[in-house]
Amino acid sequence: MRKVYRDAVEALAGLLRDDMVIMSGGFGLCGIPDTLIDAVRASGVKGLTVISNNAGVDGAGLGLLLETRQIRKMISSYVGENKLFAQQYLAGELELEFNPQGTLAERIRAGGAGIPAFFTRTGVGTIIADGKDVREFDGESYVMERGLVADVALVHAWKADAEGNLVYRKTARNFNPMMATAGRVTVAEVEHLVEPGEIEADHVVTPGVYVQRIVHVPDPAKRIEQRTTRPRP
């Protein structure tokens, strides 16, 4: 099975449609599938439900899809860096499903593991639990959360081989490994593409069985979301 595609547009060909569910890896601007997001924007699909920790920032990452109003709903944990997101949400133009960050990660992991639902104490007694099944276990209350699965998962990896085995680097790992397992089709953009067998088996984070398509993106842009420096002496 050929997994390596010439570019992001080719890698997404035949996968995108209106009103679909997309997972997009990354945390802030770290480890986001920039090139694949650009290809989604160019496709013009709309009415998207996007599962991602946040919605990028204004003018970058998923913020680009907000500019073109291709996103109908976000399932997220943190959206405070994006003014356009706030404007669309407060105007009733964007639906939002907020999640505690750990709950979001576990919902994605559960979806990838074939677990339809699980119980957690996080959110009990708050609006997070409104309308959800709350049960008692060993004298404690727990709220039921549903696992998440996407039509397509878009992830960013540091290294891959042609069989789709993925390796991530440092904090750019974030949500990418869980999302790679939770997409019905997973498309990975990778910085370094090597031959099968060049990656040590113990170094593989996402086995190639989870990855259907790969696009090689050497030297991707790596923006700094919040630059913090000390004043010069």
From TrEMBL:
SUPFAM superfamilies, sorted: NagB/RpiA/CoA transferase-like
Keyword entries, A-Z: Transferase
InterPro entries xref list: 3-oxoacid_CoA-transf_A, CoA_trans_fam_I, NagB/RpiA_transferase-like
UniProt-listed Gene3D superfamilies: Glutaconate Coenzyme A-transferase
Pfam annotation, one family: CoA_trans
One MF annotation (Gene Ontology) recorded for this entry: CoA-transferase activity
Protein name stated in the entry: Succinyl-CoA--3-ketoacid-CoA transferase
